[in-house]
Amino acid sequence: MGPDDEVCYCFHVSLRKLLNYSRRVRPQHASQMTACLGAGTGCGWCIPVLTRIAQSPDAPELEAMLAEDYGRQREAYLKEDAPRHTFEE
Ligand code: FES
Q1: Does the Cβ of 27 fall within 6 Å of ligand 1?
Q2: Is 86 part of a structural domain of the chain?
Q3: Which segments of the chain have a pLDDT < 70?
Q4: Is the CB of 21 under 6 A from ligand 1?
Q5: For residue 20, what are the domain limits?
Q6: Is the pTM for the entire model greater than 0.85?
Q7: Residues 11-18: contacts with CB within 8 Å, 24+ apart?
Q8: Whose CA is nearest to atom 4 of ligand 1?
Q9: What pLDDT does residue 89 have?
Q10: What is the total count of domains within the chain?
Q11: From ligand 1's centre to the CA of 6, what distance in Å?
């Protein structure tokens, strides 16, 4: 996955936008990432990634964390009858 690929599919927010936002704002809580174009306020799929970005936007493993099948995994997430991801505060 590259920097211009979407992390939040619901609001079409790219990894680059989220990293830049997190580096600039340095959020105290992961839920503050929602102020970046509404990321995380839809289906919740991207919330674990948003949390990692909020915690450490310069971590080298972030891009690797977003596997090539990130989008396909979301499709399965949407179909399953399980609790949605939420921000932990
Ligand atoms: S993919 Fe981010 S809220 Fe749905």
Answers
A1: no
A2: no
A3: 64-65, 89
A4: no
A5: 6-79
A6: yes
A7: 11/37, 11/38, 11/39, 11/41, 11/42, 12/37, 13/37, 13/38, 13/39, 13/46, 15/62, 15/63, 15/66, 18/50, 18/53, 18/57
A8: 43
A9: 66
A10: 1
A11: 10
pLDDT for 45 equals 96
Kindly give the distance from the C-alpha atom of residue 50 to the centroid of ligand 1, in angstroms, as a whole number. 10
Does the CB atom of residue 37 touch ligand 1 within 6 A? no
Q: 88 in a domain, yes or no? A: no
- 67 within some domain: yes
17 part of a folded domain: yes
Q: 57 CA to middle of ligand 1, Å?
A: 18
What pLDDT is attached to residue 31?
98
Residue 63 three-state SS: helix
